[in-house]
Amino acid sequence: MNGKVAFAVAFSLLAAFPMAALAQPQVLPQPRPVQPGEPQPVANAPALPPPLPSGPLPWSDKSLTADARADLVQAYMTRDEELTLVRGYFGVNYPWLPKGYSEAIRKALPGSAGYIPGIPRLGIPALSESDASLGVANGRHMRPGDQAVALPSSLLTAATWNGSLAYAGGAMIGAEARYKGFNVMLAGGVDLAREPRGGRTFEYAGEDPLLAGVTAGEAIRGIQDMHIISTIKHFALNDQETGRTTMSANIPDAAARESDLLAFEIAIEHGDPGAVMCSYNRINTVYACENDYLLNKVLKGDWGYKGFVLSDWGAVHSTVDAANNGLDQESSYSHDQEDYFGEALGQAVAAGTVPQVRLQDMVHRILRTMFAKGLIDQPVVKKPIDAKTDLDVAQRDAEEGIVLLKNAQDLLPITFLKRPSRRITIIGGYADLGVLSGSGSSQVIPIGDTQALEVLAGGAVQMGSDQKPQIPSGTLILDPPSPYATIRAQAPWARAVFYDGSEIAKATALARVSDVVIVFAQQWTSEGWDVPDLSLPGNQDELIAAVADANPRTIVVLENGGPVLMPWLNKVGAVLEAWYPGNRGANAIARILFGDVNPSGRLPITFPQNESQLPRPVIPGHYLAYSRIALEGAHSPFDIDYVEGANVGYKWFKAKKLTPLFPFGFGLSYTDFEFGGLSATGGATLNVSFDMRNIGKREGKATAQVYATPPGGVARLIGWSKVDLKPGETRRVTLAVDPRLLASFDTDAHLWRVAEGEYAVTLGESSAEVSAGASVHITASTIKP
Ligand code: NOJ
Fold first, then answer.
1. pTM of the entire predicted model
2. Which residues are bridge partners to 231 per DSSP?
3. Helix, strand or coil for residue 341?
4. Going by C-beta distance under 8 Å and a sequence separation of 6 or more, which residues neighbour residue 232?
5. For residues 421 and 495, is the Cβ–Cβ distance under 8 A?
6. What is the residue with the minimal CA distance to atom 4 of ligand 1?
7. Using CA atoms, how far apart are residues 560 and 99, in angstroms rounded to an integer?
8. Between the CA atoms of 201, 202, 208 and 210, what dihedral angle is there, to the nearest 10 degrees?
9. What is the spatial distance between Cα 159 and Cα 150, in angstroms, rounded to a whole number?
10. For the chain, how big is the Rg over CA atoms in Å?
11. Contact, 186 vs 277, CB < 8 A?
12. 195 with 649: CB under 8 angstroms?
């Protein structure tokens, strides 16, 4: 079914929370004596509200630290108020929600992913949460008519290797969120792409901890500079969708710290997210949201994290264990099996199984974060978004993250055609309607005349437990404008025709009479399920091969969630990896195809030649992946032993001496670069300097990547530089290397250890290309985690 749906944007006013502004000397509350017949309050937290001082509230003093301000509020809080802040609601009134629910969320922003009531008496606003990986989401169209700018996928943003674009995207999301009334963004996806078939690979920032950490951290920083909270998620090792709510990611501490946890650590350092969302899965058999190791030891202990931990929706499994092991807020209790942080938590605190100080710590973390991020001093106020400015942000991102993978005989940019009545045939991929987006809770309803298609997921149909083929259906959203429209606008001199590609014979007939053919190929992915394999679904491979046989001037534009196989690669003239390019993706594609933009994206993820090259040729637990059972997570629990350890993606390929289809870091340009003059100085720290030179004929952005191989280890990315160079221009760059990137984690000694020895340092255009190399002696050192 193919339906055109136009959405209108609706805005309403949000009540701003009043806050007395003036500072005054701190007045500590005197708990009101318990009156005869009133319940005895549990130690310290009064059952009845202590009277507030007259005049400005003590915590309105902006000169105090966030911690001091939170302490002041807490001194006036009742036990019920404390419990109010640690338990959230789904901000949507679905019929299946518990009785009395609608009354509780009456004040929620309609269609919010999560809502935590505020405490108006104390000037504490509600937390209004929206998903926000790629824009202010409106999954399942929960807020009818509410559109937002759809950024490209986070994987595309990682492919820009340009943290400032991630920051700009985050700031754009933060601004739109404020204008829509949200003050918490469920953003910052940074799970490493251990599973290239993963349904949410598009929401994450690739396979390398440094690149992913910087990309996600900068996006978070951008969001929070708009005075709202961003999460980082999903903590941790939620690296596949299959069985995501039951599977256990089994991995030794050291390997986790050097890979997935390092990505979180770096992102937290860059972005200082106000909240961490613990994930659905188990880690070494213990659920993430009640995982003492992950939440108390690593996050709050080793990393000194001061924000709060909120659960993923339905990821809580206990009251006492969850609270004591580090969970600070149950996000949407109606998604959990039980109301764990409701009455049950109050009882546990009264019984002392959850210490009172722990509840106060939970509350403190939430309140201090609200002060620290500006939610109290700069409350959100609804107003129309600035779509034009925001669309430009999305376009700049797309223009730098689209990767040119092949360009035989300089087929691109399409300049040779600049003569009247040349024929361009555009085939497939709904290119007459829009560009593909990934699905799930991150789904944005984009600006413009969007297209929503009810689809069945492509690929192999698996048998469900009842032996009937069960295929997840869903709504696939195509972001406007359409590539067909932008290509026509870009090449008004040409005769551009579109054909949907449904009949291969017809497509080849058109290709034969065309000067150039552009085939749009798609792989739709979504939260909740993984694709069965890396092949393009349906008959797209066959279509591309046949069209390329008919006309070697065939350009393939890929719109996909993660890596795909390309059995037709040798036949086609050019391949442009456009990922899910967002609300101005079609403009970016057209400008790259015709040379207004010189492509500068580099792969943030390895493209394998086939699934047998992966650590797990078949996705564990995938036998049920296409059944509803698997989608809803009622999979029987199973374990995945992450045998590759810290060798995720290209590190696995290097360790196993495998040659991928396209290596991590790869990408072409319309100009040529030369990197050299490498000097690496060792000792206690590593500093690397090198020259980047444009030896081609047009301006372009080069991305020089530096990898280091510790003695007996595997090469890892230790830094990069992306610079814009005019023809003939040379730039010398110096990078100071974070010693953790050279180190291994010593679990027994509980520290990072840099081994003494000779480290191979290489400079190149990708993880597989070496422009220059050096060997440098590094002395032994240790770093506290
Ligand atoms: C579940 C998803 O895993 C998470 O990313 C999202 O933020 C929540 N649902 C809320 O929609």
1. 0.93
2. 275
3. coil
4. 188, 190, 216, 220, 264, 267, 268, 271, 273, 275, 276, 277
5. yes
6. 312
7. 41
8. -130
9. 17
10. 27
11. yes
12. no
User: Cis (ω within 30 of 0) for the bond into 413?
Assistant: yes
CA 498 to chain centroid, in Å, comes to 33
Angle among Cα 572, 575, 579 to the nearest 5 degrees reads: 145
pLDDT tens digits for 400-453?
999 999 999 999 999 877 677 799 999 999 999 999 999 999 999 999 988 888
Q: What amino acid occupies position 532?
A: P
Bridge-based pairing of strands 89-91 and 473-479 is unpaired
238 in ligand 1 pocket by Cβ < 6 Å?
Answer: no
Q: How many CA atoms lie within 13 A of 598 on its CB side?
A: 20
Mapped onto helix, strand or coil, the DSSP state of residue 446 is: coil
Pick the more confident residue, 92 or 120. Answer: 120
Distance CA 589, CA 485 (A): 11
Tokens of 640: 């995945």
From the CA of 441, give the closest atom in ligand 1. Answer: 11
For ligand 1, is residue 441 a contact (CB within 6 Å)? yes
Which residue among 277, 311, 330, 631 is best mutated to probe the pocket of ligand 1, counting the most ligand atoms within 8 A of its Cβ?
Answer: 277
Q: Look at residues 769, 691, 770 and name the one whose alpha carbon lies nearest to residue 729.
A: 691
Query: Of how many residues is the chain composed?
Result: 785
Half-sphere exposure of 724 (CA within 13 A, CB side): 7
**Which residue, among 560, 254, 575, 534, has the nearest Cα to 435 in the 3D structure?**
560
CA 27 to chain centre: 44
Helix H or strand E segment including 498: strand 495-499
What is the distance between the alpha carbons of residues 546 and 544, in angstroms, rounded to a whole number? 5
**CA 50 to CA 248: how far, in whole Å?**
46
Contact by Cβ (8 Å): 461, 473: no
pLDDT at 103: 81
Q: Which helix (H) or strand (E) holds 320?
A: helix 320-324
Q: Are 432 and 512 in contact (CB under 8 A)?
A: no
Of 199, 203, 207, 276, the residue nearest 236 (C-alpha): 276
d(CA 135, CA 442): 8
CA distances from 64 to 72, 227, 274, 378, 750 (A): 10, 17, 18, 16, 35
pLDDT digits (tens, 9 = 90+) for 174-211: 999 999 999 999 999 999 999 999 999 999 999 999 99
State the DSSP string of 630-659.
HHTT-PPP-EEE-TTTT--THHHHHHTT--
Q: At what angle do helices 585-593 and 387-401 cross, to 10 degrees?
A: 50
- Residue type at 522 in one-letter notation: Q
Q: What are phi and psi of 725, to 5 degrees?
A: -125, 135
Beta bridge partners of 283: 249, 286
CB-CB contact of 177 with 228 (8 Å):
yes
Does the Cβ of 131 fall within 6 Å of ligand 1? yes
Written as six digits, the tokens of 307 are: 């924000």
CB of residue 312 inside a 6 A radius of ligand 1: yes
Q: Where are the beta strands (DSSP E) in 439-489?
A: 451-456, 473-479
Q: To test the ligand 1 pocket, which listed residue (443, 527, 529) has its Cβ within 8 A of the most ligand atoms?
A: 527
Q: State how beta strands 423-427 and 495-499 pair.
A: parallel
Is residue 233 lining ligand 1, measured as CB closer than 6 Å? yes
